[in-house]
Amino acid sequence: MDTPKNKLLVPYDFTHIAEYALEHALGIAQTIDYDVYIFHVINKDTRARIRRDNLPENYVDLELQKIVDKASEESKVFVKYIAREGSIFTDIASVAKEIGARFVIMGTHGKKGMQHVTGSWALKVISASEVPFIVVQEKHFKHGYKSIIFPIDDSTESKQKVKWAIHIAKIFNSIVHVITSNESDSEIAARVYRNTQQIKKFFDENNIEYILKVNDEKGGNFAKAVIKYAEYVEADLIMIMTEPDAVLPVFNWGKWDEQILFNTAKIPVMCVNPRDFSIMVVGL
């Protein structure tokens, strides 16, 4: 029976990367008292494996129930699974909406993603959803998201990224590392400055601890600079946008997407979209 609590959705393909995603989901759920839903898409690959290995028709259900039982027992979190025929490119978003998930925790093998979600396809899966994604590689949850990277350039983006940064920071008592691009063009530099001042105002109003860092190099590859700084401060999470809506400044999905999302440091990335989840923060 479903419970009325908030939910996290974990796409699950029985790989070790999916285990990392589940570990993050359980860690978050323990911290903020959420339920966890594991979702497996039964597709032609699943059916082919069942036939090839002469597995029982209910193999997926049996295996998912084992995973649910183990996760529930070890974490004391309510865990449930969903398995259905479909396509990962549409059904992850539809199931997230169906169960009312607050966000999705998805594992990816760098550019080789779960159930063949690779490169631009992974971006399409994420962008198709109305809820944020936390994309996880081979990195343990450990102490949670204590150190958050918040990149700022001259582009515009949704107030939702700011809201989610404040929300996550309050949950984990995080320090937000605000890194800004360093522009040689005076007009672009002025926009970056205005964006930064506005973000600082919201963080100050909500008592969020933050550190401001200006990229050392003018111009150049900002995504590479973000990842380098994230490694330096041992960041636990990087925040980017999936779609801009020109309300507040910051990071534009599409410019740096794969470099950040599939970063070689394997730092989890939270991809936020403009949908308003009524997270109440001061000034927004």
Structural account:
- The two termini are 36 Å apart.
- The longest helix has 20 residues, at 186-205.
- Helix 7 links the parallel strand 9 and strand 10.
- It is built from 9 helices and 13 strands.
- The chain is elongated, with a radius of gyration of 19 Å.
- 40% of the residues lie in helices and 26% in strands.
- The protein folds into 2 domains: 7-136, HUPs (Rossmann fold, 3-Layer(aba) Sandwich), CATH 3.40.50; 147-272, 3-Layer(aba) Sandwich (Rossmann fold).
- The strands form 2 sheets. Strands 1, 2, 3, 4, 5, 6, 7, 9, 10, 11 and 13 form an 11-stranded mixed beta sheet that branches. Strands 8-12 form a two-stranded antiparallel ribbon.
- It has 284 residues and is α/β, with parallel strands linked by helices.
CATH class of the largest domain: Alpha Beta
CATH superfamily label of the largest domain: HUPs
- Report the principal-axis shape: elongated
Q: How widely separated are the two ends?
A: 36 Å
Strand content: 25-35%
Give the SSE string. EHEHHEHEEHEEEHEHEHEEHE
**Helix/sheet category:** alpha/beta
Please indicate the count of domains. 2
The oligomeric state of the chains shown is single chain
Q: Give the overall pLDDT as a whole number.
A: 85
- The count of β-strands is 13
Rg from alpha-carbon coordinates: 19 Å
Helical residue percent band: 25-40%
Largest sheet: 11 strands, mixed
CATH third-tier fold name of the largest domain: Rossmann fold
Task: Note the total helix count.
Answer: 9
**Reported CATH architecture of the largest domain:** 3-Layer(aba) Sandwich
Low-confidence stretches: 112-116, 244-253
